[in-house]
Amino acid sequence: MNPLRAGASPQRTSFDLSRLLRRLVVLVFALIQAVLVARILLDLGLFSTESGFGEFVVSMSDFLAAPVQGIGSGISNMFGGPGLESIAGEGFNAVMLVALAGWSVVEGLVMRVVRKFDQV
Q1: What angle (nearest 5°) sits at the alpha carbon of residue 43, between those of residues 37 and 49?
Q2: What pLDDT, in 10s, does the model give residues 8-59?
């Protein structure tokens, strides 16, 4: 039985700014994380850096990882030697992994703030 034929009126959905904001935040951080994952794959040699996409990924990921650039050498020193490069291989870039983790934490914090708008 179709509810529209039985005399029921269709529900109207109202505009929900909080929902739109949550989706926008998730989209922005998904794009950031995709660029950083693409850079990790690029450094491991899974695709070429000579393409236009490779150059874009390198430039954007360097910009996104700038706040954590000094952490890579600190991780190497913490393990008392070459660090993660000796474990994961020559192409591994620890800075991009730290940047990916950092942006994920920032996403969680921003989403927590956005969820507060639901209560207002």
Answers
A1: 100
A2: 556 666 778 888 889 999 999 999 999 999 999 998 888 877 878 888 998 9
The answer to whether 83 and 77 are in contact (CB under 8 A) is yes
Residue 86 lies in a domain: yes
Report how far apart the first and last C-alpha atoms of the chain are (Å, whole number): 39
| Model confidence, pTM | 0.73
Q: Tell me, yes or no, whether 4 lies in a domain.
A: no
**Looking at the domain assignment, is residue 1 inside a domain?**
no
* Domain span holding position 90: 17-119
Nearest to 63 by CA among 37, 32, 109: 32
